[in-house]
Amino acid sequence: MKTRNIIACLVLLFATQVVTAQNNAEAIIRLMVNQVKSHKNMEMAFNYQISPDGKNYSDSEKGHAWLQGEAYRIEMADQQTISDGKTIWSYLVDDEEVMVSKASDGTDNTPLKLLTSLDESYVATLSGIDAQGIATIELANPKGQYKRVTLKINTKKTELKSADIYMEDGSKAVINVEEMKFDQKLDDKFFTFDTKKHPNVDVIDMR
Residue 144: which CATH number? Predict the structure, then answer.
């Protein structure tokens, strides 16, 4: 399972059109997306776990993600994914290797392709809203790589709380959002990979 793609897909969900929906699921997701779009940028602190069999989970790991227009940056312990909207840098920290590709390539393993699949193919259904105002929304696609995604959204703040992502092979990723910040001071260089700061990194240009 490519963890960076799962996180990227989740982050980029904020920047896309909403999937076909039933009940009030579409309205809730649109409010969440519009709330993010009303700001210059978004920063999200999260933790995540991976389960190869859907039952046993890895230790919880922390990460950060930033979204500003078409640009995004995702930082985890062992890898970083950075894009300025035109180029994607996939940096493997331990391997000291960065793979460079075009954001427009549209191959199956790029966040852009995953985002397109989510937007076009998934149907959203509202399962319910609890007493604290947390809505549970199911995204389903019997033909997609992600068979099912369960979102929990705080309807009072219109913010994402968590996402459970179920893969076709039976594996699962659980992502919990710890904090969201908006309108941070970020320059354009923040969304590029600086090789000068990583002189020992092997650059693999796949463009």
Answer: 2.50.20.10
